[in-house]
Design brief:
The complex is a heterodimer. By secondary structure, chain A is an alpha/beta fold. Chain A is built from five helices and five strands; from the N terminus they run βαβαβαβαβα. Chain B is rod-shaped. The chains are: A alpha/beta, B alpha+beta.
Amino acid sequence: MDDLHKKILIVEDEEPLSSVLKDRLSNEGFTVVVAGNGEEGLDLTLSEKPDLILLDILLPKKGGLTMLKQLRARNETGNLPVVMLTNLSDAGSINEAMELGVNDFLVKADTQISDIVDLIRSKLGL
Amino acid sequence: MRLIEKFILLILMMSLPPLIIAGGFFYYSIRNSLENQTTAHLNSVATIQKNRIKDIQAQNLKRLADFTSRERLRELMDIYARTNDKKNLVQINTILQSASGISNDIESITIRNSKGQILVSTEKDTEISQLELSQGTNPSPSQNSIRLISQPGAENPSFYLNGPLMRQGKAVGSVSMIIKTDELRQTVSDYTGLGETGEIALGRQLKDGRVAFIMPLRFDRQATDKIISDNAVPMFSALKGEEKVFTSVTDYRNHDVVAATRYINENGWGLVAKIDRSEALQPLQRIRNEIILLAFINSVVVVFAAMALARRFIQPIIDIEGVAERTSRGNLNSRVTIISKDEIGNLARTFNHMLDNLEEFDKAKSDFVSIASHQLRSPLTSIKWATEELTDSKAALGKTKRRHYLQQIHASNERMIELVEALLNVSRIDVGKLPFKKEPVQLEEKLDQIISDLSAMSQAKDVVINKKIDVKLASIEIDPNWINVIIQNLLSNAIRYSKKGQSIYTSIEQKAKYVVIKVEDSGYGIPASQQANIFTKFYRADNAHALGSEGSGLGLYITKSMVERAGGKIWFESIEGKGTTFYVKLPNGT
């Protein structure tokens, strides 16, 4: 039950999506924290110290890319695994995320939850 | 034909004819003046020559007269005729010999008695009589005469002068003199002022009616007594007694000449002073060449100038064509770089403006597609993930969860249907094909129905909708679907952006020609800085976005389009944090 020690932060404004993800990841044994916007996401990252962040791009208050930039600018979160999970698939967004040092870029509509689980496991070396 | 070729041709066509016409005028006026000049000159030469010839003949006749008027000679002749005394004959011979020695010109003098028999002569008798016989001269003339005779073997003819020796009213004999024509020849061989091809021709009519030259010619030293052919028009004219000028006529050599004619009536000679037309008009040749050269230079200059000019005019068109071509291949960034202030510059600016619009439209279209697809992806993902969890055995969902997931799928599906409907409306609005079917609509009925449709939404937020309807309210003419969309969008926005437990006030007011629908909430309001954008497609105010992902940003765009197309107006008043009031003014009917 190693997974219990791993904490995942989901930053997602669409409640139906975050709730399904939270249910599944909890079932898989992770501790899950959900933030509904970028500001909350940054606060929760600092307070909850998650092992990995699933980050949407289009978010109220603070966009995912801005939040990522701020994470990378901080020592304690500079190397934190961040997986973009968004429905934006344009080259501009992907490139910007890659330049900001995102670890992976997933398009929600093209991704199954089981793929997300597998990716999290491999990123965390489980 | 390319534009540049048309341009050059046009300029050539405009510039060459005037040049050719002016050149032609110049050419013909120069030719005219050259002809006038030449004929005037030939006229004066002909007059001088005629006078000289008349002088020579008069001089010769005077010689004869001087001789025949010698009193001593007449006396001796009279005595000799009567006495037949040889002494007299010796004295006559002495006079003859001294007279013939006066001038080299005198070839011979012969004195005859009244019967025509030769008494004394500087020539041998036989030769003189032979000559006179062959030329048909009269040995017993009644008056002084001068005529030409040709001596066998001589290059030039000679003057033959003949006159009576009178003594007391009757002829006692006659004198005939043969005088060289050297002076005459020198006179007509004087080509001063006649250039390279000018000459003086003298002609006379022979007994048989044919016409012959008198003197050698410049281009025919053996011309004397040669019969003149019919093509020597000026000579025949001169012999007819005409004194005139020809600007272009053929001579005996069949050359085209300018000529002046004279008639010497004392002996019936014709005189022609002439010069080859080619020489007379020599300067014209140069002028013609200059005109041709000028026309050629003009053409070259015109072609180059036209090319330069055409390039100036046509290059921008080629530039525009290039940009149009790149644009048609899909490159919308290409622009025409022309700054001229003329029509082509205007075309370029308009063209660039069109490209700006095209690029904007293209961007708007791709933005629309990307935003629309993004908006569709959220409910699609929700359905995808919920169904994955429902069907995945590992998920092991409880009954409540399963029910929740199914509700979530249903909601996402509803949202997609709404979104697709909104997108379809936007697309119809954009192409101007939104179906519109007017019919009478009872607004209060409509409002009640919409409030009821939205009850789930309003109850979820504990929001109460209060309505106030004008008692005078009549039905209005509008598409029922449109009025449905308009009111529903305004009310659902009011609920969405109200805070929990707040109230919404809606009213419909009847005016003379229109109704005003008012929807007032006391919710979040629209930030002042963003109020100008809220009717823009997909635009959502920051605070609206912060509230959550519901709302496509299409509702107000569609609402405004429908209101305006129905002939109405929409506006609002809003203060951030205090609430918003929307007003829709719609005409009663047509």
